[in-house]
Design brief:
With 125 residues, the chain is α/β, with parallel strands linked by helices. The protein has 2 helices and 8 strands. It has one domain: 2,3-Dihydroxybiphenyl 1,2-Dioxygenase, domain 1 (Roll), CATH 3.10.180.10. The chain has a 4-stranded mixed sheet, with helices on one face.
């Protein structure tokens, strides 16, 4: 079942711009995400979309951002790629039934300590 999109895009302030670019380039690759470089900032998303922006700066506080995955395999590829890119494990891929029976997610902390999640919502028919 497809869910409507509510948030159009999000921009994060990041301390180490190049480290964050490397992290998100790898972590979002399972979606086929591409990077658009604006010189003083960058954005990531599938072709025709710029869903996540990065701008150098001092983050006020860590945030939690979740990316919708089309299947469990994408959640697993995200987790592996994000760890390989220097992220810190904050929850291995698995079911999170406290949210709902089909909530399958993984969590990784990015270079600034933001909690980055990949989630697949498998709803019963």
């Amino acid at each position: 079942m497809s869910r409507p999109v509510f948030i159009d895009h999000l921009t994060l302030l990041v301390r180490d711009y190049e480290a964050s670019r490397r992290f998100y380039r790898a972590a979002l690759e399972p979606w086929g995400s591409r990077e658009v470089d604006y010189g003083d900032s960058t954005a990531f998303g599938p072709e025709g979309s710029e869903d996540l922006g990065l701008t150098p700066g001092e983050p006020a506080a860590p945030v939690h951002v979740a990316f919708a995955a089309p299947d469990r395999a994408t959640v697993e590829r995200f987790h592996a790629a994000a760890l390989e890119a220097g992220g810190r494990d904050n929850g291995a891929p698995g079911l999170r039934p406290r949210y709902h029976a089909g909530y399958y997610a993984a969590y990784v902390l990015d270079p600034d300590g933001n909690n980055v999640e990949a989630v697949h919502h498998a709803r019963p028919d």
